[in-house]
Specification:
alpha+beta, three-stranded antiparallel beta sheet, three-stranded mixed beta sheet, 6 helices, flat, binds zinc ion
């Protein structure tokens, strides 16, 4: 369900390849289950929890369990291909990482929706601010917490989440 068909196959393969290189560099063995998890992860878009990934992975191979998914995500974070994020609810979410695709986040505390934004003026302003303070930024993370102004859309999302949580 969360698999986004618009993630181009070449892009998925590029990430799979980069992960293979990391595995070799680290002297780890390649495993088929891990490869499946990595492929499924990079075919998904957004901010993915362990549970969400597990659901998609099980659709491909029901034998793969929580612990393997969890460990693979940690390897992905170690490989620098994936970033772990925790927003307001404290739940760990994972996002494919690339400096080219840098963006920041707005999080609705009512419905939990995560909006992405990128603003070149804001990025430049941060650089300027750092310059003014004789500081060099390696990376940054900007998270804005609040609520959707579109109350109808927000409530629809809340109802959908409640329905999903109760398993309908
Ligand atoms: Zn994001
Ligand atoms: Zn909302």
């Amino acid at each position: 369900m969360a698999i986004n068909k618009t993630v181009p196959q070449e892009k998925v393969q590029e990430k799979e390849h980069a992960f293979q290189e990391f595995i070799q560099r680290s002297g780890l063995k390649t495993t088929r289950q891990r490869n499946t998890i990595v492929k499924v992860f990079f075919s998904m878009k957004g901010h993915i929890s362990v549970e969400e990934l597990l659901t998609e992975v099980k659709a491909v191979n029901p034998k793969i369990g929580y612990a393997t998914v969890y460990r693979t995500l940690h390897l992905l974070v170690e490989s620098n291909l994936v970033e772990e994020r925790r927003f307001g609810d404290g739940l760990a979410r994972y996002e494919g990482h690339s400096s080219v695709e840098h963006h920041d986040h707005m999080i609705c505390l009512e419905c939990g929706e995560i909006f992405e934004f990128y603003n070149p003026k804001l990025e430049a302003l941060q650089e300027q601010l750092a310059d003014d303070n004789d500081f060099q930024i390696y990376r940054h993370r900007l998270e804005l917490y609040g609520a959707c102004k579109d109350k109808d859309a927000c409530e629809t999302r809340q109802r959908k989440k409640a329905a999903e949580a109760s398993g309908d």
